[in-house]
Amino acid sequence: MSFSMTRAACERFLAGVHVGVLSVAGAGPDEAPLAVPIWYSYRPGGLVSVLTGRESAKVRRIRAARRFTLCAQQEETPCRYVSVSGPVVAIEDGVDPAERAALAHRYLPPGTAEAYLVATAGQLTADVTVRMRPERWLSADFASIAEQLRDTRQPAGDRGQPSAG
User: Fold this and answer.
1) What angle do CA 57, 58, 64 make, to 5 degrees?
2) Which long-range contacts (C-beta less than 8 Å, at least 24 apart) are formed by 86-89?
3) Which contiguous run of DSSP H or E holds residue 85?
4) Contacts for 104-112 with beta carbons within 8 Å, 24 or more apart?
5) How confident is the model at residue 165 (pLDDT cuts 50, 70, 90)?
6) Strands 48-53 and 67-74, how do they pair?
7) pLDDT digits (tens, 9 = 90+) for 109-145
8) What is the pLDDT of residues 64-102, one digit of tens each?
């Protein structure tokens, strides 16, 4: 049984609101990869975009590796994840205010997003925008096995029937 999602399902999932984990190669042969949680944006068929500090370890390593991986997951049952890797196609100096606002509103409630944008306005010039073209997709959706397990826990005559109690 395969748990992989179709490419279209992967793209829809990645476009959903998930905190991603960005992974990028170590700076040297003895250095482990860096893996950190991050807000991101993605539209099906487009690029993965992240905003982060110009001098951050992430950006230093991304500049060296010229590629990264982003993994997004759903922790609630049934668990799902999509991991996408690819080359960096742009590292843009600064951040577009509209893109930053959209990202804040993606992850925060409206009042909190506005307060966050005001409190962190300096990030418009202190951050960079990194864009990656997805090339390699990995995924798993455990909904089918969760359904099978749910069915095996019920007596055969009770499947799909509401309980009487």
Assistant:
1) 90
2) 86/48, 86/132, 86/133, 86/134, 86/135, 86/136, 87/132, 87/133, 87/135, 88/62, 88/130, 88/131, 88/132, 89/47, 89/131, 89/132, 89/133
3) strand 80-93
4) 106/17, 106/39, 106/41, 107/17, 107/19, 107/39
5) very low
6) unpaired
7) 989 999 999 999 988 889 999 999 999 999 999 886 6
8) 999 999 999 998 888 999 999 999 999 999 999 999 999
153, 16 contact by CB (below 8 A): no
Cis-peptide, bond into residue 78, ω within 30° of zero: yes
Taking 3-state DSSP, the helix, strand and coil percentages for the chain, each rounded to the nearest 5, stand at 35, 30, 35
Q: How many CA atoms lie within 13 A of 137 on its CB side?
A: 19
